[in-house]
Structures are given as structure tokens and as C-alpha cells.
Amino acid sequence: VQLQASGGGSVQAGGSLRVSCAASANYHMGWFRLAPGKEREFIAAINRSGGWTIYADSVKGRFAISRDGAKNTVYLQMNSLKPEDTAVYYCAADPIWVGARMGAYWGQGTLVTVSS
Predict the structure, then answer these.
(1) Cα–Cα distance for residue pair 9/51, rounded to 1 Å
(2) Which residues contact 38 (CB under 8 A, 6 or more apart)?
(3) Cβ contacts of residue 14 below 8 Å, gap of 6+?
(4) Nearest residue to 28 (alpha-carbon basis) of 69, 57, 76
(5) What is the mean pLDDT of each run of 10 residues along the chain (116 residues)?
């Protein structure tokens, strides 16, 4: 499975960004992030049909994951961004639903920078 992430960038605190990840197959998908000096953090996941989503507490209510089944593309809409959201964001895919433990396949990262 090939995953192609895009959409990162720089934004001021309180702003919004949307990152995307196009997959070559219809798998369960999710987003993780890696910030300097921190461990990789699970952000959100969505099942293959798009009917089930889960979120990390740190982003619940601010971020929304969705997918376009026809395009095999998953989106992460990030609102009310904070400087602590600054990280490289990675998409992941898995043929089996394992929630936050997904990670059979990984895309390249896309950098999100939030300035105060």
C-alpha cells in the first residue's frame, strides 16, 4: 500500500489546516504525529467505511478525520491549532482495525508548524 500525504504548512495559533493522505487501497487509516523530543503520538483513526472514528484526547473537539471512499483519501481537519500541535504528521493504514495501534503501512510525513 502506498500512502501520499500532503497539506502541511505554517499557521498562527487559533488557525486551521487540513492535511490529506491518498492511499492506493481502501484500508483503515489514521494519523500520528512526531514532535521534536517527543514520542510518536496517535491522533485519530477512521475505519474503512468511514463510519467509525476515534481520537486522542489531546485533539478531541478540535480535529476531525474523514475520508473520501471514491478517492481512497483520508483528511485531517485541524482547527483551533496550538503551538504544541507543531509536529510532523504521518498517515498510516492497516488492513485490520486495531485502532490506535494501527501502522502496517506508513506515508511520508508532512510538517505542520503553529506559531504563537
Answers:
(1) 28
(2) 87
(3) 80, 81
(4) 69
(5) 95 98 96 96 97 97 96 97 98 96 95 97
